[in-house]
Amino acid sequence: MITTDAKADSWAAIDLGSNSFHMVVAVQDGSSIRHIDSIRDAVRLGAGLDHRKRLLPETEARALDTLARFAERLRGVPSENIRMVGTNTLRRARGARRFMQRAAELVGCPVDIVSGREEARLIWSAVAHTLPETANHRLVIDIGGGSTELIIGKGLSPILMESLNIGCVSLMQSVFSRRKLKPSSMKEAITAAQLELQPVAKAYRDLEWQDVVGCSGTIKAAARMLAELGLTDGVIERAALHELIFDIAEAGGTEALQLESISQSRRDVIPGGLAALYGLMKILDIQTLQACNAALREGLIFDMIGASDYLDVRTQTVENLQSRFLIDTNQAARVERTAHELFDHVAKTWNLDPDADLDLLINAARLHELGMGVAHTQYHKHGAYILEHSDLLGFSLGEQNALALLVRWHRRKIDFEAFDTLPDSDRERLLKLLGLLRLAALMHRGRHDEPLDDIRLRISEGRITVSASQDWLDNHPLTAAELTAEAERLLHVNIRLKIDKS
Question: What is the torsional sign of CA 6, 131, 297, 392?
Answer without folding.
Answer: positive
